[in-house]
Every structure is written in C-alpha cells, then in structure tokens.
Design a protein that fits this description.
By secondary structure, the chain is α+β, with helices and mostly antiparallel strands. Helices cover about 40% and strands about 15% of the residues. The protein is built from eight helices and five strands. The protein has helices spanning about 1-5, 10-20, 25-30, 45-50, 55-60, 65-85, 120-135, 140; strands at about 30-35, 90, 145-150, 155-160, 165-170. Strand 4 (about 155-160) and strand 5 (about 165-170) form a beta hairpin. Helix 6 packs parallel to helix 7 (about 120-135). The protein is globular and about 55 Å long. The two termini are about 20 Å apart.
C-alpha cells in the first residue's frame, strides 16, 4: 500500500525479498495474500481517500471518495491486484473489494455487497487477472525473481523450465 500511495517501496521490498526468499516453496506457493480484511479499512478507501486518523465516526460514516479520489484509487487497486495475483501465493479477495466497496474502519468496512451497483469495470479486471493466473501454472508454482523495485517501478519475473512472464508496474506520479 505504501508503494502505491506514498511511493515508498521498503515494505514491498521486504515482502518480495526476505519473506519470499526465506519461505520453502510449498509454503510460499500456498500462503494467503490479501489487500484487505474485515479488520482493515477497505482497500479502495486506503488507496484513494484521506486518512481516518483524528476523524470522528460521524464524519467517516458520511465520507465517500470524490470522483478524482475514486479514479486514483481504482488505478492503484488495479496495480495492487495485478501484483497480488502474480507474486507467489494465493490471492484472497475480501468480498466487495472487487466491486468497488469503500469504507473506513469497523463498522464502515463491513457494508453489504452492493448487489446491482457493482463497479463492473473493476469486476471485469479482477476476472481477467484471475483468468491469466488460472491459465498459466507459472503463477501457481513458478519461481520468482525481483528485477527492479524503486519508488515508481516494480518489475519481477515468474518462470519455470518452459515459461517466463514479466510483471511490470509503473507507479509514476503522472
């Protein structure tokens, strides 16, 4: 999240080097990777909204992302999910994140699924990434190599004896 919001790659670097390199492959390939849970603010809110610290629950209950914030958050969420789905491990999605639910801390992050009001562009993105992952076994069992990570760029390779796929994330401030 810090890589995408404040252009700080240090936590991501730790996850992609120390954690991945020190876990046996049977653990690394089965670990549950997630962006949000019922115990965290909604990922869309974290990626595009103002911080909740110092804000009253009354204020947070009414606060929604404006169009600019939501656009930024959706762009960042697509990058975040592309990373999550292509690094070692199994991507886990907290219900509603794929549909564009917003929300600050509990209880605002536990709103019901927005049946009939889903963000179909986000849902289709999640489906497409899922299809790519499902159809390419290298994302389930392949090796991982970090190629580049700085404040605005992430590049890594997933490979096996037959295939090599590169994930490139451009997180520049453009």
């Amino acid at each position: 999240i810090d890589f995408l919001t404040v252009f700080d790659p240090s936590s991501l670097e730790y996850a992609l080097t120390d954690i991945i390199n020190n876990a046996p492959s049977r653990v690394r390939n089965m670990q549950m990777n997630l962006l949000g849970t019922h115990d965290t603010e909604r990922i869309l809110t974290l990626l595009g909204g103002e911080r909740s610290e110092g804000r009253s629950n009354e204020y947070l209950s009414k606060k929604k992302l404006d169009d600019l914030e939501r656009g930024t958050a959706k762009r960042r969420l697509r990058m975040a999910y592309a990373i999550l789905a292509t690094v070692p491990g199994i991507p886990a999605i907290f219900y509603g994140d794929e549909a564009g639910l917003e929300g600050y801390h509990d209880p605002f992050n536990r709103m019901p699924y927005p049946w009939g009001r889903e963000d179909n562009n986000l849902i289709n993105f999640y489906r497409n990434i899922g299809r790519i992952r499902r159809n390419n076994s290298v994302y389930k069992e392949g090796e991982f190599k970090l190629i580049c990570l700085d404040a605005s760029t992430l590049v890594f390779e997933r490979y096996d004896e037959t295939y090599s796929y590169i994930t490139f994330v451009n997180n520049s401030k453009l």
